Amino acid sequence: MIHYQLRCEAGHEFDGWFRDSEGFESQAAGGLVACPSCGSVEVNRALMAPSIPRKGRELVVSPEPPPADALPPGPQTAGGALPDAVRAALQKLREEVEKNCDYVGADFAEEARRIHYGEAAPRGIYGESSEEEAEELAEDGIAFARIPWAPRNDS
Ligand SMILES: [Zn+2]
Prior knowledge:
Helix content: 25-40%
Number of strands: 5
Order of helices and strands: EEHEHHEHEH
Strand content: 5-15%
Radius of gyration: 34 Å
Structural class: alpha+beta
Number of helices: 5
Oligomer: single chain
Bound molecules: zinc ion
Strand order of the largest sheet: 2-1-3
Distance between the termini: 92 Å
């Protein structure tokens, strides 16, 4: 016996068992092989496809972590009118950062990378970076945080 995957003119696929390939040819030619779905006798052997699961070919593994901006945004305030408590907390945060970290200005991304790879003394730093630089740091797995920078007390 020989097994064929068959397809009718309407595209229905079904299985057929025949004595041999000539058995199929003669039965099909004689109109003896009918589609079980629509009864059509216009039946041909379907092309045999390699047995690769469809899903398997579409599987994509993304090694990249989700971008930082995929995180839910924090609460926002508008108009520059920060509540006093928030303003005070941010000023305190700024003081702590300024006291404990080195200011590296626009070199922040470069310096953060040097520290990450052991090329510079490990320490806390702060400074400015562009959106692009921040994204690159996040992609490299370098830990940093963006904090709102409160105006100084004396300004
Ligand atoms: Zn059919």
